[in-house]
């Protein structure tokens, strides 16, 4: 503040804006500006327990305070064991120390400095990838007859994104016609409802150990193995035929049978 006397002897006081610790020169001078978002958050996906940052930058006079919303509601800091697994950093970014499936949702950042209306960012979707351990349905061991149709069930664990399912036989991946891509109108091996394995016209070569495998970007899960045995009904390979023999001599009547399991022959 300066003091001056004019020609008439009247004291003239002049007050100038100044800057000091904790005082914004522009604010004192009336230079305020409503907040605006300078960097909008973008949609992202991460693995469960991994760290993640959703970015948001804003400016205005005075500097705005940045908060976040999730699914249209104000985001509250959640304490877990005495500390928070997510925090709004001083610059406005939202940091997750470790992602949890409950963190998935639609996020916006909100900047407010008391001047004009708060600035709201575009929506960003956060997806947390995970895959549970428990299969909802697992294949079971079966014994069928050759020519039958077999259905091996598989209900993969719940996950995000939804896991893809493939089948193994004796430890090797099965070539399954999922959508008739091999050109067969009725493929012998196909997926039913996207996960269950159907085998049409079962053959002895189909016997073996089957396993359902579920996989997404988060993990791979394997079901317990199930045994499939395709039985072949007994049938004659060589039938006995009429034979003439001399009295007291030996005679051989040939009979040969086949099947799986190997059948027994009773005279």
From TrEMBL:
Keyword Phosphoprotein included in the entry's annotation: no
UniProt keywords, alphabetically: Disulfide bond, Immunoglobulin domain, Repeat, Signal
Transmembrane regions: none
Stored Pfam families: Ig_3 (PF13927)
Keyword Ribosomal protein attached: no
Top-level division of the source organism's lineage: Eukaryota
Ranges for domain Ig-like: 35-127, 133-229, 234-267
PROSITE patterns, A to Z: IG_LIKE
PANTHER family cross-referenced by the UniProt entry: CTX-RELATED TYPE I TRANSMEMBRANE PROTEIN, ROUNDABOUT 1, ISOFORM A-RELATED
Protein name according to UniProt: Roundabout homolog 2-like
Species of the source: Thrips palmi
Gene this protein is translated from: LOC117651981
């Amino acid at each position: 503040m300066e003091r001056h006397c004019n020609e008439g002897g009247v004291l003239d006081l002049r007050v100038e804006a100044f800057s000091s610790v904790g005082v914004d020169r522009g604010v004192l001078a009336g230079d305020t500006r409503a907040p605006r978002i300078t960097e909008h958050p973008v949609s992202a996906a991460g693995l469960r327990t991994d760290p993640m940052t959703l970015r948001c930058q804003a400016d205005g006079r005075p500097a705005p305070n940045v908060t976040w919303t999730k699914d249209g509601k104000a985001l509250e800091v959640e304490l877990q064991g005495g500390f928070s697994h997510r925090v709004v950093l001083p610059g406005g970014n939202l940091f997750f120390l470790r992602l949890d499936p409950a963190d998935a949702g639609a996020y916006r950042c909100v900047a407010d400095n008391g001047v004009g209306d708060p600035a709201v960012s575009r929506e960003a979707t956060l997806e947390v990838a995970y895959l549970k351990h428990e299969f909802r349905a697992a294949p079971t061991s079966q014994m069928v007859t050759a020519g039958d149709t077999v259905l091996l069930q598989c209900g993969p664990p719940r996950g995000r994104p939804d896991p893809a399912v493939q089948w193994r036989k004796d430890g090797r991946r099965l070539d399954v016609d999922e959508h008739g891509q091999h050109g067969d109108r009725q493929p012998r091996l196909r997926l039913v409802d996207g996960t269950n394995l159907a085998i049409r016209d079962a053959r002895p070569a189909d016997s073996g150990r089957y396993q359902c495998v579920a996989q997404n970007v988060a993990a791979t899960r394997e079901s317990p193995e199930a045994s499939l045995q395709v039985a072949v009904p007994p049938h004659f390979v060589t039938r006995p035929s009429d034979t003439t023999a001399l009295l007291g001599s030996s005679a051989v009547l040939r009979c040969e049978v086949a099947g799986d399991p190997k059948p027994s022959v009773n005279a």
